[in-house]
Amino acid sequence: MKVARFDFGTGDFKEWFAGNSEVKSIKLVGKLPLDKIEESSKLIMESDIVSVDLSECENARFYECEYGSEEECWDDYANYIIDRKGGLLSPLAKMFLNKRYSTSFVIDGGMVFSDDRKVIVHQPDAETIKIPEGVEVIGRWAFANYTMSHISLPDGLKEFGDCCMELLDNLSELKMPDSVVKLGDSSFAYSDLESVKVADGIEVFPSCCFRYCAIDNIPKSLRIIEEGNCFRLSGQENAVLYLPNGFESMGSYSINGYAYSKVIFPSTTNFIAKDFWYDEIVGADGKKPKIVIPKENPFYSVDKKNNVVYNYVSNEDIQREFSRKAIEFVESETERKYLLDKDVLLSPLEMVRLSAEHMTSGQ
Predict the structure, then answer these.
(1) pLDDT tens, position by position, for the chain (363 residues)?
(2) Whole-prediction pTM value?
């Protein structure tokens, strides 16, 4: 198939396109003016074009992004369109936002994919969206600010890209296929998700990934919760949060403090941010939430008498911050034994039930 070439530095794309309506495949070159992106996208999507090559094309700098990388500038543009204007990104903008996966894209039935069809970049908004089989990645910003209320995900899906399902007001639940192993920054941030079944292969909750969402489970392979997640457990208040053996790091504002009465860290934890509780620090029952750190933990020292926790990795005495937040540190032999005996985590409700039985039995 012959590929037509257009250089944004040589003229107006609309005028050129009017004289080349038979084009099926196009290569865009030069710097695309951002005030022309909506018009250019509409021309492409409403034509018979089936492939777009962006390998030699970049954006003219967004006025608020003078020094960042091209991807960072496109992220600024996306935030401007979605967060500040409340709009939707054009398919062409999404292609640029997903150049980390591919610089060539195919268009099929209104949908846009990477050239190998493993990354879905765009699909028109609808009440129900079905991702085609064979897709392995939901691209960056693909469905941000959509009105959809249902989504069907294919087996074999491996990754949710950055901001791919940000600001979804009507989607209340999501079940990840077991094949998913990677999430992106802000993948589901600010969405009204009340139930997310997280795939067990997930090791990292990236920055703001589940911000203000409710999740059904903590995956047994989870090692890191980065800053800004602020998640809670589905259908629970005053919950006990058990983090699995192998868990290592808890970032700032990682969890919604009001949703938990207790957080139990395993002995493998080597970093807990001073401000890992977001906003509220009093549990749903009005009591101080408790932090449980096993005695075997080689990274932390707990002095219950003086309410001091010391991190040997960062050489940091974090007494002042935690005291200010009025969080009580406890070491419980029973809870520690229960935690260390469980190498596969159950659902949160089942964990709470078993823990209560364990405490009552005194085992």
Answers:
(1) 689 999 998 999 999 999 988 899 999 999 888 888 999 999 999 999 999 999 999 876 554 555 567 787 888 889 889 988 899 999 999 999 999 999 999 999 999 999 999 999 999 999 999 999 999 999 999 999 999 999 999 999 999 999 999 999 999 999 999 999 999 999 999 998 999 999 999 999 999 999 999 999 999 999 999 999 989 899 887 788 889 999 999 888 888 766 787 788 887 888 887 777 765 444 555 555 567 766 666 666 655 555 555 555 454 544 444 444 444 455 544 444 444 444 333 333 444 444 444 444 444
(2) 0.83
Nearest residue to 172 via CA among 154, 147, 155 = 147
Question: Quick one: residue 219, left, alpha or beta (phi over 0 = left, psi -120 to 50 = alpha)?
Answer: beta
Instruction: Tell me how far apart the alpha carbons of residues 361 and 103 are, in angstroms, rounded to a whole number.
Output: 60
User: Could you tell me the two tokens for 163?
Assistant: 């901001």
Instruction: Spell out the SS3 assignment of the chain.
Output: CCEEEEECCCCCHHHHHHCCCCCCEEEEEEEECHHHHHHHHHHHHCCCCCEEEEEEEEECCCCCCCCCCHHHHHHHHHHHHHHHCCCCCCHHHHHHHCCCCCCEEEEECCEEEECCCCEEEECCCCCEEECCCCCCEECCCCCCCCCCCEEECCCCCCEECCCCCCCCCCCCEEECCCCCCECCCCCCCCCCCCEEECCCCCCEECCCCCCCCEECCCCCCCCEECCCCCEEECCCCCEEEECCCCCCEECCCCEEHHHEEEEECCCCCCEECCCCEECCCCCCCCCCCEEECCCCCCCEEEECCCCEEEECCCCEECHHHHHHCCCEEECCHHHHHHHHHCCCCCCHHHHHHHHHHHHHHCC
Going by C-beta distance under 8 Å and a sequence separation of 6 or more, which residues neighbour residue 277?
Answer: 253, 255, 257, 289, 325, 327
The DSSP output letter for 182 is: B
